[in-house]
Design goal:
Length: 111
């Protein structure tokens, strides 16, 4: 991901929309839920007026609890968000139950 991705994204979206105007293109602000690339990615998606952004996050269960209000400050009239890839991944823990509970707790807190 980087500058080239968003330059190419614009070319692809324009070409696809010209031929298939009813298709909604899903993009991503980056492979991580925070950091410089994430911020840059969101800046670009807003500038390009993207329809839908797919955020990805694989983090420890504590991250999910701390980010339960993550979308409260997002612009409701801006780029829509599709959280398509996420899972709680405790460090050094192979306990599947802890992973499941962490992920489910996040989904419950989002409601």
């Amino acid at each position: 991901m980087g500058v080239e991705y968003f330059e190419r994204y614009e070319i692809f979206v324009n070409a696809i929309n010209e031929k298939y105007p009813n298709i909604v293109i899903v993009s991503t602000p980056g492979p991580f839920p925070d950091g410089d690339m994430f911020e840059y990615g969101w800046e670009q998606l807003k500038k390009l007026n993207a329809a839908l952004a797919d955020e990805h996050y694989y983090r420890p269960p504590e991250w999910f609890k701390a980010n339960a209000d993550r979308y409260d400050s997002y612009d409701r009239d801006g780029v829509k968000v599709f959280a398509g890839e996420y899972a709680a991944h405790p460090k050094d823990v192979e306990n599947g139950l802890k992973r499941i509970i962490g992920t489910l707790r996040y989904l419950k807190l989002l409601l």
